[in-house]
Write a structure and sequence with these properties.
154 residues; Cytochrome Bc1 Complex, Chain D, domain 2; 56% helix; mainly alpha; binds heme C; 7 helices
Length: 154
């Protein structure tokens, strides 16, 4: 049994620091390794990515948002309100001023069935990539009713 002396305590704490440092390095390595090859989850993300969508066109998006197309013959603004800023039901999200890439990602996910919602699945099912980019550009361009934490809690 080792005698507890100041020197031993110093040695032990030095050893503990080394072990912790090594542990930190190896977990960093693991994280790097995970990023290298696509896993199933990453493939899912790639499938629903909005990264490869064409450039969104605001005017075309506005026209589409107001038109009663698709299988349900309902316009986006019938539920999300004028400019996506005044939803007709409190459970419907505000779209005005939302990030375009977030909306595009959501619409791709609804279309692909990755994000499941009975209402929006039906709304997004027939949209092509250009439609999604246009609609997202339009709603993102509307004055924001949304707040973020930079404004603090209100
Ligand atoms: C019948 C009503 C209705 C119509 C029409 C409709 N939506 Fe929605 N939308 C909803 C509801 C309800 C949700 C919330 C669904 C959920 O919880 O995932 C939603 C969610 C969304 C979201 C995700 C928002 C977020 O914050 O995550 C987007 C983007 C969106 N809608 C865009 C559209 C677009 C574009 C159209 C037209 C092509 C459209 N919606 C038509 C009811 C509707």
């Amino acid at each position: 049994m080792m005698k507890i002396t100041t020197k031993n305590i110093r040695l032990l704490s030095a050893a503990a620091v080394t072990i912790l440092a090594l542990a930190a390095c190896s977990s960093e390595k693991k994280a790097e390794g995970a990023a290298a090859g696509p896993t199933e989850t990453q493939e899912d993300i790639i499938k629903t990515s909005s990264a490869g969508l064409p450039q969104g066109r605001i005017a075309e998006g506005e026209a589409l948002a107001k038109s009663q197309t698709g299988p349900t013959k309902q316009a986006c603004i019938e539920c999300h309100g004028m400019d996506g800023a005044a939803p007709t039901d409190p459970t419907y999200p505000v779209l005005a001023g939302q990030y375009a890439d977030y909306m595009a990602h959501s619409l791709v996910a609804y279309r692909e069935g990755q994000r499941k919602n009975a209402v929006m699945g039906g709304q997004a099912g027939h949209l092509n990539d250009q439609d999604i980019a246009d609609l997202s550009a339009y709603f993102a361009s509307r004055p924001a009713k949304l707040s973020n934490l930079s404004k603090g809690y209100e």
